[in-house]
Design goal:
globular, 3-stranded parallel β-sheet, 3-stranded mixed β-sheet, mainly alpha
């Protein structure tokens, strides 16, 4: 939000270029940024992480950061892959608590919570992180309409999607929409999740292989 307060997209692009350079020099080829959540509930604890409450600011500054991170050749030693997040409606939690539910009518979804991501796709964003919460009672990681139909279909996104922290397991332990962890993995993959952030266990891979077989 401090970056957006500069009202300076060219400076923002330069900042992303410097960040990419330092990350790549450290052996890190990928960053979980930019966050382009539209933040309109002042009690939400991650308001500072996005460019604020305005859709134009999120669209313009998100695109500038993606251009700075990835450059013209993301494979060189000076740039990194970007990850636009959190697709989508993550900042619309009605309780103000992180990773909770949002109620977003379709018209608001398309007017407020999709355009910045559509522009990011046009700018070549390589990856997308999925919303940890729920929209209209559907957990983000099993929302086939948003991930597959809209992001990959309508927007033409050709990169890959990644879950947020342990969110596939949370389909079973927190959201209670899956009967077990294996079922949660199946639901997420079929919805369009391509990669999973699994920080604390080694169960995911063997379960996924069982499901594929």
């Amino acid at each position: 939000v401090g970056i957006a307060a500069t009202w300076n997209p060219s400076l923002t692009k330069q900042l992303a270029e410097l960040t990419a350079y330092e990350c790549r020099a450290s052996g890190i080829p990928w960053v979980f940024s930019p966050a382009m959540d539209l933040c309109r509930n002042p009690t939400w604890p991650r308001n500072w992480e996005s460019f604020g409450e305005d859709i134009m600011m999120n669209t313009v500054f998100g695109a500038a950061m993606i251009e700075g991170y990835q450059g013209n050749n993301m494979a060189d030693k000076f740039h990194v892959a970007s990850c636009m997040k959190h697709f989508t409606g993550y900042g619309a939690a009605i309780s103000g608590k992180d990773r909770t539910t949002a109620w977003i009518p379709d018209r608001q979804l398309r007017e407020l919570y999709l355009p910045q991501y559509a522009e990011a796709v046009k700018k070549g964003a390589m990856t997308v992180m999925i919303n940890s919460g729920t929209i209209n009672n559907i957990p983000g990681h099993i929302n086939h309409e948003l991930i597959t139909d809209i992001l990959k279909g309508e927007m033409g996104f050709k990169g890959f999607t990644i879950s947020d922290w342990e969110d596939v397991k949370y389909l079973y332990t927190r959201h209670h929409v899956a009967k077990n962890y294996k079922d949660a993995i199946k639901m997420a993959i079929l919805a369009g999740v391509d990669m999973t952030m699994v920080p604390v266990d080694l169960e995911f891979t063997p379960l996924l292989i069982q499901l594929i077989k």
